[in-house]
Amino acid sequence: MKNHKYFLLLITLLFSNIILSQEEIEVEEVEETVIESTETYSNNRGRRNVKNIYKKGEHFLTGNIENEIYIIKNNATNLYGLQDFNGNLLVRPMFKSIDKYNSSKNRIIASLDYSKKGVIDRKGEIIIPFQYSSITSKKGKQLFVIGKSYSNYSLVDYNAKPIIEGVFESIYLYNDVIKVKRNDAYGIFTSEGKELLPIEYDKVEYNSSSKFFSVFKNGKSTILTKDGKELFNNKYSEVKTYGSYRSDQFLVEKNDKKGIISFDERKIVPIKFEDIDLKSNYQLYIVKQNNLWGVYDSYFDKFLINPNYTEIHQLSKNVYLLISDTKKTIKDIKFKNTVDVSKYNFKNYYLSSSTYLKTENNGKQGLLNINSGKLIVPAKYERIRVNSNFISAYNNQERKYTAYNSDGKIIAKDFNNSKSLASKLYKITKKGKAGLIYNGELLADVKYDMITYFRNIKLIILVKNSTYSLLDYSTGEMLIKDSKNRIKINTSSNKITHKNKNYFYSSGQLKE
Predict the structure, then answer these.
(1) Which of 126, 138, 213, 262 is deepest in the core (most CB within 10 A)?
(2) Alpha-carbon gap, residue 478 to 467, rounded angstroms
(3) pLDDT at 94
């Protein structure tokens, strides 16, 4: 307690020099401050000429808070302070940092050192003492979450008065309610500190648009209204929100059967299935019946794909992977075509570029084109990446890449790296040399010492053995080839200089 009093006394003395009236600031600073100088400061509203306090060149502007309070930094000490728009000193530079993002013009979060964060007003008066490791503001910057250490947080209002008594492991502020965690249990309070849900739930999620809580307790999930009542009057043995983006649909269970209902209890999927996958496609739902999976159309109340499969994976909006005991099939429900892929194992079920599915064989990766069912990249690589119009496959043992086009044709081998220059345009490198891939084809072999791309005019200068070439990559036409004379392009004027002549590129031609 003695040390605590000493710390507060020290802070009070430290701040005694900055809590000055406007008259005191002007009397002390007028002889040493050059107010006439201004500094142009850029912000979201445009450019403003903000008068800066140049006490013999000591200070400069580093940011602003709500375009009204300006943060200054001392050149000699690297400490931060505050001034107003007219250049009047508000708080002398004495802080290690000032948090402009969580601060407001009347409540400024600053730091004296590690674990010494606090809050002051614009005059430098201490609102929250400098004894916290973290401080963030929420709800229009009228509430502060203050932390003394990890898992030790409190919530105070604009004047540092506690809103909810005690400390918590975490505090999360929604727009209109507060979620707290204590002893691994969650509860909900209003912004005024009134308890809505006691701190006794294993998990709480809040839907701020529809104003309900999805809670989990003792192995059971329930939906509660904002006043803590069960949404569906306990009609179901379990209720949970369906998926991550359908806030108005609920997965319910009754008599060991599952279905999906709406907020007003309209049955979207009848409560008659053994299980329902959490991934759906508009009115199409993957459901389980008689221990097998199918795709149910809720609009027409019928199966689009009959429940005959041990697994079903939705790969995209229209494409499903169907797995039975004897067969694997990719089915496109829009074009009603199927492809047998029984001989392949799959790395995962993420569909790259809506076309490619990774395969796996003995820990090696390959790539399958789902439209044709053709393995376009053999399963012998550690890593495969689908780029714009070509695929790069990495061999870990050789530490080299191989490039394939969408038909499975090898377009480049044994290169070290690739870098995107523009849409469909990539530079590839190998043993200190560079080449180009464009639109899935090898545009320039990997033999150039330097490749320079000029975005404005979509031209490329190629350098090889001190000879220069000029390439239009979009057409593949070499405008100047293997010249001993240097080619220069002015990036501001797009002027091309070669053999002491100036050119402009227009309509596919070089014009003087």
Answers:
(1) 213
(2) 14
(3) 95
